[in-house]
Amino acid sequence: MGKRKLNITFYLSVVATILAGVAAGIGLFNTEIYHDNSFVKTAWYANDWVTLVVVIPLLIIVLITSKNGDFKFNFIMLGLISYLFYTYAFYLFGAAFNDMFLLYIAIYATSFFAIITSLISFPVKNIIATSKILRGISVFLILISVMLCVVEVPPCFTFITKGTLPQIILKSQIQTSIVYALDLSFVVPVMFFSGSSTLAK
Questions:
Q1: What is the spatial distance between Cα 196 and Cα 194, in angstroms, rounded to a whole number?
Q2: At what angle do helices 188-200 and 131-162 cross, to 10 degrees?
Q3: pLDDT tens digit sequence for 144-200
Q4: Which of 87, 121, 173, 194 is the most exposed place for a label (fewest CB within 10 A)?
Q5: Per residue, what are the HEC states of the chain?
Q6: Do 107 and 20 form a contact (C-beta atoms < 8 A)?
Q7: Residue 110 contacts residue 12 (beta carbons within 8 Å)
Q8: What is the CA radius of gyration of the chain?
């Protein structure tokens, strides 16, 4: 069963990688695809370059190697697929509606289920690491979660008390902040509780 789940993860990851490569390529070389303002377009272009030049090549290498069942490469693949899931959540929920909307859904969905199937069959007992390494990673995760809260929570309270919109919303000219929404509802809780649970053991 574990091997079957791993195969499902592999094929979902391959699909997500191909689709992300197509989306990033279209985003970079079709200047008419994005309908957002210049501030938001700059963010999309930056994401597309990182995805196409860094993440996709790494995923191709890792996917080819991970077919041998190497735990370390599967672990790296999980991190890269998580990048696709997080990044394309911004496109799906934050970008102005465009011709790639269904493509964003496909990338978001395949990467999400690749993460789920990977975690279900993840050989946690095979993780070999010293207590210092685990504590170091845990402290890092907690620090990042705290830093995100320090940066993103105060503007929310400023809006409540003074009615002043956060700068990121003013610059993007949208009614809500997808950055704050994803970070505070997903990234911060996962990082903080993962780090805290490890330190508590």
A1: 6
A2: 140
A3: 999 999 999 999 899 899 888 888 777 777 666 888 889 999 899 988 988 887 777
A4: 173
A5: CHHHHHHHHHHHHHHHHHHHHHHHHHHHHCCCCCCCCHHHHHHHHHHHHHHHHHHHHHHHHHHHHHCCCCHHHHHHHHHHHHHHHHHHHHHHHHCCCCCCHHHHHHHHHHHHHHHHHHHHCCCHHHCCCCHHHHHHHHHHHHHHHHHHHHHHHHHHHHHHHHCCCCHHHHHHCCCCCHHHHHHHHHHHHHHHHHHHHHHHC
A6: yes
A7: yes
A8: 19
Comparing 51-60, 67-76, 87-96, 188-197, which segment has the lowest mean pLDDT? 67-76
Residues in the chain: 201
**pTM metric for this prediction:** 0.82
Residue identified by tokens 């990467």 is 111
Q: What is the mean pLDDT of the chain?
A: 87
Residue whose pair of structure tokens reads 């890792």 in the numeric block? 62
